[in-house]
Amino acid sequence: MTASFTILTVCTGNICRSPAAERLLGAALWPDVRVVSAGTGALENHPVEPAMAALMLNDGISPAGFAARQVTRDDVANADLILALTRDHRSRLVRLVPAALRRGFTLLEFARIVAAPEFPTLEGTVEERLREAVSQAGRRRSTGTVIHDDDVPDPYRRGQEAFDEAYGLISTAVKQIATAVGR
């Protein structure tokens, strides 16, 4: 089976936050969904940063075979759901492909919206539920109010505590998304 729904996760270097989100979402939603990641300033071909890789391994998520890559216009244009790790990343992607506005969120924003008690129950296959979640989340997006907590802080070169915080935020958000789409 080939998944026809693609989620793109994006951070800066594509070695810490977005690979963790990619692999966690992939583990939660595979085989129904294809998840890829990239960076706005990727450290191309680098593996997952060791501190993040260790956290992933502790959760049974393998970072093996990962190689950082730069986000492309095609990545953004072809993704069904774009989950940026900060509002700045999301803004950059929307500037790159303006049509991405309606399907681009920060990871934490999307998780917050789909986990809200008033969010409707989704029906159908995982792919159908995700398509409906993107549509519903777009209609429920905050307007005018900036929520600063929608950014996952960059842990790169900031020590283990920063990696623990970032990974915790990403892991919780992924669990909320997986629960909302019925996985």
From TrEMBL:
Transmembrane segments: none annotated. The keyword Nucleotidyltransferase does not apply. The keyword Hydrolase applies. SUPFAM superfamilies: Phosphotyrosine protein phosphatases I. One of its GO terms (molecular function) is protein tyrosine phosphatase activity. The active site is at C11, R17. Coiled coil: none annotated. Residues 5-180 form the Phosphotyrosine protein phosphatase I domain. Belongs to the low molecular weight phosphotyrosine protein phosphatase family. This is Low molecular weight phosphatase family protein. It comes from Tessaracoccus defluvii.
